[in-house]
Structure formats: structure tokens, C-alpha cells
Design a protein that fits this description.
Blueprint (H helix, E strand, L loop, with lengths): L11 H6 L9 H7 L6 E5 L6 H12 L6 H4 L18 E5 L7 H20 L5 H16 L5 H4 L2 H13 L3 E6 L3 H9 L2 H16 L5 E8 L15 E4 L14 H4 L1
Helix pairs in contact: 5-6, 5-8, 8-10, 9-10
């Protein structure tokens, strides 16, 4: 039976269940698992290099709330000992690819994404103080009160902490197109207005977070000029010039053939 040509499909689950042609990149999981716990990997690639496809692959593999055995059946990772890590960790998956345009559009998108990310922990058993913190975040997000950005700058960190309390396992954080809001803000002229918010959001989640197993970010650029990752000493940057992970993005000659 012929497979489909999955043009425009960027979700790993849809790719596999839709019986589309797939260049097997699953050994990227094994290579990533060989990095140190607490490590943050930033991979920059041009558009259409399969960044989102790989990020959704990582989400499907690790997400403790899923049963992904069938998706990885017959793929390269299934022939390794790393399959014991399947669906073994809480995952925080954020995609900022649509957070662009003017200030209001970008921040509205950001608020919706953070609200969805908070949903899994809202029903968990928490302390009175944690309940108040969550309520402040939810109130700010539901009201789209952009003046309350400071309330949300620890949102990802808070989610990872509450997931740890529930599952007793550290979280894997996946942030796709992390740089889209910053690029749009620079182009539209409000970069300074949101720089501190994103610096705090990423910093609290990725720097000295005791509830972080490991994290991966993807984007087109490394935003370094304004030091958005200030003090982040566990950042491993892989660009198109680096050999690490190079075979897992884009198509290799033999895959194209």
C-alpha cells in the first residue's frame, strides 16, 4: 500500500497515524538522552527543516499522559534500550510560532498558550498558597491583562514544580519557535517592552530549576545580543554549523533518494 506525501504536516502523531512517508529521525531521542540532566539544548535551523516535527516527536515519546507505543513501533528508537523511557516524564510543550504581529496580537497568543499549559495542573492537589498563586495567574490570563505580565514570568517554572509534586518526576520542557515573539517584537518596534518578560520566563524555567529534567528549544535565530538567556550556564547551542544533531534536521542525501 502506497504511503501519503505528508506535505505541510508538522505533527509527528499525525504523520505516523496518517500513514505518511517519514524519514526516521527517532534516534535523536537516544542522542538527547545521553546529555546531562538539567541540560538545555537550543537548536537553530531555517524554516522547513523539521523542527516542529522533531519537537512533537519528543513530546509523544516522553509524555507520561500518553500511550505512544504504536507510534514508535518499527522505528529505529524501538530497537534500542531507550524505549524504557517511553511515556516516562511529564512534558511541558509550548509552541510560540503564532505569537507575532503587533503587541496585542503577540501577547494575546502568549496568554492563550500559557493558559493551556496551566490547565493540566489546575486540578492537582495544591497548598493554599499555591492555589492563590495559580488563581492570580489564571485571572491575569483570562482577563488578558497585559499589565500583569510580572505575575506570569514564573509560569513555566510553577507548572514544572506542580507536575513534580504530582508525578514525583522532573519535567521535560519543549519550546518550539522560542524566538518568534522576539523577532516580531523587534520588527514591530516593541522589543524593549517585552524583553524583560521573556528573559524572566525563560530564566526561571531553565536556570537552576530543580524540577527540570532537561529542555529543548528550537528557533531560527539565537537571540544573544540582548542576552535573553542571561546567566544560563547550561545552554548547549547547536546551529547549522555544528555536527551534533545535524542528521536529524532536513533530509540527508540517502533519505532524499
Amino acid at each position: 500500500m502506497k504511503k501519503a506525501l505528508p506535505i505541510g504536516v508538522s505533527d509527528f502523531g499525525d504523520m505516523i497515524t496518517g500513514n505518511g512517508y517519514y524519514a526516521d529521525k527517532t534516534l535523536m531521542i537516544a542522542e538527547w538522552l545521553q546529555t546531562m540532566n538539567g541540560n538545555v539544548t537550543l537548536i537553530t535551523r531555517p524554516r522547513r527543516f523539521g523542527k516542529t516535527l522533531n519537537m512533537t516527536m519528543l513530546r509523544e515519546f516522553f509524555d507520561i499522559t500518553k500511550d505512544s507505543g504504536e507510534l514508535f513501533e518499527g522505528l529505529k528508537i524501538s530497537q534500542t534500550a531507550y524505549m524504557q523511557e517511553l511515556n516516562s516524564r511529564p512534558v511541558i510543550f509550548l509552541s510560540f510560532k503564532d505569537c507575532k504581529g503587533n503587541y496585542e496580537s503577540a501577547m494575546t497568543c502568549m496568554y492563550k498558550i500559557l493558559l493551556r499549559a496551566l490547565e493540566p495542573v489546575l486540578t492537582n492537589e495544591v497548598t493554599k498558597i499555591e492555589e492563590k498563586v495559580l488563581q492570580r495567574m489564571v485571572d491575569a490570563l483570562l482577563s488578558f491583562d497585559f499589565g500583569q505580565r510580572a505575575v506570569l514570568q514564573d509560569a513555566i517554572y510553577t507548572i514544572s514544580r506542580l507536575l513534580y509534586q504530582h508525578y514525583h518526576k522532573k519535567a521535560i520542557i519543549l519550546i518550539d519557535e522560542y524566538d518568534t515573539p522576539m523577532i516580531s517584537a523587534y520588527e514591530q518596534g516593541y522589543y524593549e517592552e517585552i524583553h524583560d518578560f521573556f528573559s524572566s520566563l525563560y530564566g526561571s524555567a531553565l536556570k537552576d530549576n530543580p524540577y527540570l529534567e532537561r529542555a529543548m528549544l528550537t528557533g531560527i535565530h539565537r537571540i544573544a545580543k540582548e542576552n535573553i538567556f542571561s546567566g544560563l550556564n547550561n545552554l548547549d547551542v547547536c546551529t547549522v554549523k555544528d555536527e551534533q544533531y545535524s542528521q536529524y534536521f532536513g533530509l540527508m542525501p540517502e533519505e532524499t533518494e
